Amino acid sequence: MVARRLPGMPEHDEVHPEEWQFDETVLRAASAFALCEEARYNDGLSSGQRVEKLMEAQGVIMATVGPRFRVTFRDLLNRLSGDQAGSLVGIFPDEALAGPLRNLRFLDSVGVSTQEGCDLLWEAAEIFKIVDKKQRRGERFTHFELESEFGQEQVFKAIKGGLYERHRRNIIEYPVCDKEQLEELGFPPAVAQVFYQDIPSYCLYKRQWWFGCPACAYPMQVIPHDDGRTYAVRCLYPWHQDTGARFSFTATRDQVPVLHAEDRIYIPSKAEMPLYTGASRETPKARPAEGYRALVRRVWRSTCIPGLPELRLADVLTEAAAGTRLTVEIWPDNDRVDIEVKDGDTVVFSIDVKDYTWPGTLAKKLIEDRGDKGGATWLVVPDHRRQQVGYLTSVIHRERIGMTVMAASDFLALFTDRLKEYM
């Protein structure tokens, strides 16, 4: 597989640590642009509250860049849409924009947070949560607090108990539900009432129609073109876009929009196919927005997106292990680890699956936790994150962390090769 490269990623497989380390100033800027998106797309805000959010964002950026760099309100407004949307170039010190940051956008052309920008903020939030617990620092970013109720940890707490696996599977497989489906799934109130909310306005056409991604089923973003008649439709997760979740349609008066697939069909290799979780060739149909609720974006990204490869890997390992002494369990003991493979009472493989956009942040998490806090000894990343393996391996060796890192299809090949030992 040709791994998707972020803006500024070097054109080789080995990721250098210095290209993936971000300090607090960059994270503050990320939080400021997240506030800008909220100001534009949160339908519950009044006009005055929207201006207050933007002024708060301006204040965060001014405090971040320091007195040597003047950032006016007009400077900020110019970064909310168009070609320079969400860019730090020109308002941020050049020395802080090394590696991927120089070309990274925190907002897209219509002011919606990019997934790379979201992940930089949210993945870093997990790290600061860890170090806060160790009382190394008491300060938090404003937007970290804003997002805290939607973190992965809060989701898992809400479903702890005897039905944990069923609830977690349902969250992954049903990121959008109508009222009847939500009742049938039997989620705890904290899940059904807090984590499922109205479909975001930037995923709707005329506030009436939405389209589910052919990879993850989550509502795709609807982006108007300048002509006012044609629209692009994209999954918010970049890899799903790259594998085919990219469509367009032309608006017609009083008719249901019909999508047309763009010529970006990705064909996985034979080795990738068993664990492939990218877009299918299906062209989604428009669905009415009324009556539907979707997971908030943070929960979708932290639970559904990594959950798809977790479920697929567990299912494929289970099928491969049929007829051997091995048993495969997903999320044992309410998510002590992601997948555990046992020979009787003996643990053979204890697996943590991680889908991080920014490997430097994952490395920091591994260092702070001294590996996986649940005791997993294998770290598996999806195949489209293969370029992270070398860097994470070097960190683990340097820090003497007892884990082995592999891309998913490579781990499956290793697992299959070892099955003969357990016949």
Automatic annotation (TrEMBL):
Q: Which domain of life is it from?
A: Bacteria
InterPro entries for the chain: pPIWI_RE_REase (IPR040828)
Annotated REase associating with pPIWI RE domain ranges read 307-420
What is the protein name stated in its UniProt record?
A: REase associating with pPIWI RE domain-containing protein
Which lineage ranks, top first, belong to the organism behind this chain?
A: Bacteria, Bacillati, Actinomycetota, Actinomycetes, Kitasatosporales
